[in-house]
Design a protein that fits this description.
Helix content: 10-25%
Shape: globular
Number of domains: 1
CATH superfamily: Dinitrogenase iron-molybdenum cofactor biosynthesis domain
CATH architecture: 2-Layer Sandwich
Strand content: 25-35%
Length: about 120
Amino acid sequence: MIIAVATENNMVAQHFGRCPEYTLIKLAETSASEKQVIPNPGHEPGFLPGYLADRGVTCIIAGGMGPRAQSLFGEENIETIIGITGPVEDVVKAYLSGELKSGPGTCEHSQGSHDCC
């Protein structure tokens, strides 16, 4: 299983599509076995769900994401967890322990005011 964390300065980015990079973490049972940071290839509506699915991602974690983007990730069988803040390392630990829960998005896109994907 591979999770992707929208990342900015080693923190969870506020918006998945406009972050500078993604931290991809390969999980092995209850630990992170590999970590790779890849640059965001650019924000093009509808592109990122397929791009990340092609890299084996099954879950994306971000501060915020619009409803259309969440739907497109769902079509790729990628779980979305939004409303997350904090250092990437802490977020991954919370995910692995089952303590990471989606909440209200942290950007205006998550409030339905902008359909950004």
